[in-house]
Model the fold of this input.
Amino acid sequence: MNSSDTKTQSSTWQTLAAIYVIAVAFNLVWELAQAPLYIGMNGFRQSWRVCLLATLGDGLLLLLIFAVGWLVLRRWDWFVRPGVRGYALMIVTGLVIAVCIELAAVYVMGRWEYTKQMPLVPGLGIGLTPVAQMLVLPPLIFRVVTVWLKRAETKGGIGIYR
Done:
């Protein structure tokens, strides 16, 4: 492997780590905020544990959105300047992921139930807040990752976001 390959591989791992860490941080806040909308999530201790586990999975979902963008847009840094296609990809992929997970978890596996306070997506009977989570957070997370990595570059990190 030559020096250029090593640098590219290192920057790819740095990007993946940044996406995961930032996704976990943002999703943990969202998960804790929406916890009271789920049955059995009244106590902070119970909510914290369940939300932390869910958040680790949410981080993987952001990596999945990243991978879909990489495959479809054929640029591993597609989220830096996503344009209309990149934002559409984030939203459509996030929507598909959220709807599939909620339908499976609620109606197929019975993993969780909603309280009466949970707003539902009309026609689907799934929670609006978990669907909104996968629509709102990915663009925000990818923007924060871009800013974070650009700052790392200016402090002597890997120069990939020019």
Q: What stands out?
A: The beta strands are 120-121, 126-127. The first helix runs from residue 3 to 34.
